[in-house]
Amino acid sequence: MSDTPRPGPGSLPSALSAELTARVPQLLEAMRSVGSGLELHSTLDRICETAAELTGARYAAIGVIDENGRGLADFVHHGVDEATARRIGRRPDGHRGLLGALIRDPGPVRLADLTTDPRSCGFPEHHPPMRGFLGLPIRVQGEIFGNLYLTEKHGGQPFNDYDLTMVRVLATEAGIAIGNARLYEAAKQREHWIDGSVAVTTALLSGGDADDALQVVAEQARKLSGSAAGIVLLPADEGGLEIAAVAADRPSAMLGTIVPPESGIVAELLDGQAVFLEDAAGDPRVITTLAHGYGPTMMVPLHSDGRILGALVTPRARGERPFTETERTLAVQFASQAALALMMADAQRDRERLAVYEDRDRIARDLHDLVIQRLFATGMLLESAQRGSVVPEVREGVGNAVDELDVTIQEIRTAIFALQQGPAEAPSGLRTRVLREINTAAVPLGFKPSHRFVGPVDALVGDLTGKNLIAALREALSNAFRHARASRIEVVVDADAILPDGRKGVRLTVADDGVGIPDGGRRSGLKNLKRRAESLGGDSRHGPGIGEDGGGTTVVWEAPLE
């Protein structure tokens, strides 16, 4: 049987035969069932199942047309079990065959044997045999949403006029149900993105490390977009964009990788333009190997108030559905909100740093103007007493005390110099950067942590590993100050370390005699340390400290040498 023309407005009453009248209760029940839910995918499942029951079809499916109107964005089926579907493999894309013809020329099609139709392109391997076919479009608010397909009527009979009439009515009701479900899904989706933006803003403004802030943005973007990864890129000093945070199921080695400025995508992002890729792995504009295995990808700039902070990338696995227009719009809005929150958090950290520098200047002045002067005066009094004493033991003891005062004055002057150093004065050597972190931590701690270097640290440890080691040291010292209430801290940097898997590496050990890590306490700092180490192929762990009976905490951070 060939294509059947669409009946006119007055054709339904004339077709009401005894058979159709008998099936009206079934049709009403089917309409009630179709409109009973709001979740889109379950609504499509119900439509397929209901249409199959209504017409006696063995198989039913709905092909959801993509936004471009050239293929299928989704394919929901009924009657084919999951094991068979897996053996068949990839679902129809609607680019060819009878399904493609229905997309290009929407209208009802009724065939006694679809295998003989010239538009048919055959079935893939493991596909069940199908002959009888009934297909017609589903319209939502006047626009074609997709097509409903029915095949293999029970008993081997072809679909008749009554089936077509019933399915027409069902398709109309299905269009209303799908429209309601789409509105509900869109509202729920927007709500999730808004909640994600609130979570990012709250996390960023609650304080903490800048790297933690970027990680929050990456994790929220990945979760909200349903992507395989969330990636934050920041402008690199030598040009291009550097990957500063990655959220993925497995530790990623891409952290710290630089996407070169020669990439046209980098230029577009730094110019404030969003870039959307249908297949990142096969796109010629992607000149790095980072996109291997990724398909649909959103790349949106992090910009606020005319300032480009970086970019946010959310790739899906190859073969997954592309991002919808709504998802793209929500991602751009989320990136703008995240950029604003990052700027506010950065400004807040600047204010906190300024307060710290002002306090350090005050402490340095007090040390110089008061403490050193008093110690110097005390030393002079002791020297005078030493000269006036006739007892050798007293003279020796006073001399030792004067020597100790001289050493103390020198140590205080060293501390004053460290307090007065600005961030721009930090040398590039890893050993010196470690010492700088230790001296900086000495101010809030009230004492200077001890330190030891093993091996040629500056020569063996590369820039990327050194950068992450310094961040790990800063995090560990910060935890010791804020949570451990330690009175003694030991720092060891070992560039001759052998990692558990036998590779040569660098190992940072920070041990304290504090209160240890309480049960149920926050672990965000430790997770950050572990994430940094794993991104370099290393690891991080913690254990008992150096206090009495193992009190306190020992943090070990290690990574292979580059």
Automatic annotation (TrEMBL):
Claim: Zinc-finger is one of the keywords in the record: no
The entry's keywords: Kinase, Transferase, Two-component regulatory system
Listed Pfam families: GAF_2, HATPase_c, HisKA_3
SMART domains: GAF, HATPase_c
Domain Histidine kinase/HSP90-like ATPase intervals: 464-562
Cited PANTHER family: NITRATE/NITRITE SENSOR PROTEIN NARX-RELATED, OXYGEN SENSOR HISTIDINE KINASE RESPONSE REGULATOR DOST
Annotated region described as Disordered, given as residue ranges: 517-554
Protein name per the record: GAF domain-containing protein
